[in-house]
């Protein structure tokens, strides 16, 4: 069955425009990853309007390619200028930059690109098998389980807000409230529709563009006087698989760590890379060489962060739960295409998720080739002035929002979301919980009410269903864990000071 | 304070420069303002939620207002909590790092220009509005080379025409 679906997926990739989308997405991802300060979530928010007129498969392939390629190329400025292009490339700089200082930049880049490729390959293989396994469980879900799943997804707010849990929770509740504007999904009654345009709710796409892309433009404008990282030399790639001799176990371990952490919603590529790096150092015979230019450090970080990207696709495709800002935007993009990710996607339209798996495999050589042979171009990309970048992104944001409904209403929504996003980010309220809420609110409310109506209004149904009870318990754990960690750290600090 | 990107663990682009201008407010005051703003939003939803109809087809349905009401009450509780934290911080010795806007004139100028741009677009057409807006925003963004300004403005217009109008069938004003 898997092989049959895979063949269907490959067929869809080769027959549709998915290959072109893959190539363009990879190029955009490389550019985005190579520019410190730009993230895949900004690029995804900006690119969604371009997917309106695309078929669903090329559209998701484009988004996945951007997401993956940006993780590949984040290592380039990390190695050449000690300025990681993406957060997940930060541990790559620990050893990559010292290697560049020693005059081994080409070697360091080869380790990073080939390590990334290996991570993607192993991650994709693991994704296929775990996705099938998760779907087998999720297929029996009813309203109580779906409600619990939505609550579990929302509980990630503590992880996504990565600072004050209270502020993350405020963002989440604000997003949930915004999502109730429009028609009630059960009774059809209008809620909070002060104007007729609000009957269909807050338009998701302009809100996404504003919260992620336009608000980032305002942050970029704060740094226009700062000098970009210097990358004077353009290194030559030392293409050789011999470099990886004796690293087989190291590569596999890093990929598995990356994938497993990637699957955990909210953890993401950055935590995967840091954990893999720490584990490599902990188990090394020469831990003192880590941080001074040990290639194993680069391999540990890059293999893990790319495997984590495949891992993040598992909860997204099988459960419809975004585990990061980027995957939340990708779900938004899929919903605009009329596709609801989740277990039923594998039942109703199995070739679609398999086309994504196939594109991940087909994309691998494209990403490796662009990484290995396009290095001169990616170095040049970092020289684009911030002001030019900010103006260009604003122009595309406005055009993209306008295209949503061919009118000015979404443009105003986007501008308001952008200004609100900027101000909220200033007070440490990150937009990711808001987007998570906008994506999951309908699933949460609809299934909560359906579960109650199906059980004569008895709320105990959420605890008598074992799957629902486990997920709700997990949600409480996930939500409370960051706060618990902060309290523990605070309690520990005075003790450490006293010991010192 | 962390920048948005930093909250995802991202490094800053370049180092802060000595001649940068900053607008700063204390963290406590910022938290008080945040609490007030979100309390107002929650209150607004609670007020409008009063007029929402009950579910009229199934007595076991919690109703149209139940979900938004619960969220609004929770938001109000969290907003009051952050407000109280802010007041406590203002009068405590641990003030925390302030909230600052670097290069505020550039940021506010760009926001105002973008609002004016969106407002004027339906009246003067997209292309005329862009010819005025793009060079002004580029200047505010620190681009001084007229070659960059002219070429980026033309590029924006070309992308709008060929990609958005021709390919994506957008009917630009």
Keywords:
heterodimer; A: 500 residues; mainly alpha; two-stranded antiparallel ribbon; 73% helix; B: 173 residues; 2 domains
Describe the structure in your own words.
The complex is a heterodimer of chains A (500) and B (173). With 500 residues, chain A is mostly helical. Chain A has one domain (2-499). Chain A has 23 helices and 2 strands. Chain A has helices at 2-15, 18-34, 40-47, 56-73, 75-81, 90-101, 105-138, 143-155, 157-161, 165-179, 204-221, 248-263, 268-283, 295-319, 325-336, 343-348, 351-373, 375-381, 386-405, 409-426, 431-453, 461-464, 466-499; strands spanning 182-183, 190-191. In chain A, strand 1 (182-183) and strand 2 form a beta hairpin. In chain A, helix 5 crosses helix 6 (90-101) and helix 5 (75-81) runs antiparallel to helix 7. The longest helix of chain A is centred in the N-terminal third of the chain and has 34 residues, at 105-138. Chain B is mainly alpha-helical and 173 residues long. Chain B has 2 domains: 22-101, no CATH class; 104-167. Chain B is built from 6 helices and 2 strands; from the N terminus they run αβααβααα. In chain B, strands 1-2 form a two-stranded antiparallel sheet. At the A-B interface, helix 10, helix 11, helix 19, helix 20 and helix 21 of A face helix 1, helix 2, helix 3, strand 2 and helix 4 of B.
Q: Which radius of gyration of chain B do the C-alpha atoms yield?
A: 23 Å
Provide the β-strand percentage band of chain B: under 5%
Unreliable sequence segments of chain B: 1-13
**What distance lies between the first and last C-alpha atoms of chain A, to the nearest angstrom?**
61 Å
Low-confidence stretches of chain A: none
Radius of gyration of chain A in whole Å, from Cα? 22 Å
The backbone outline of chain A, from C-alpha atoms, is: globular
* Helix/strand/pairing category of chain B: mainly alpha
Fraction of residues in H or I helices of chain B: 55-70%
Instruction: Give the total of beta strands of chain A.
Output: 2
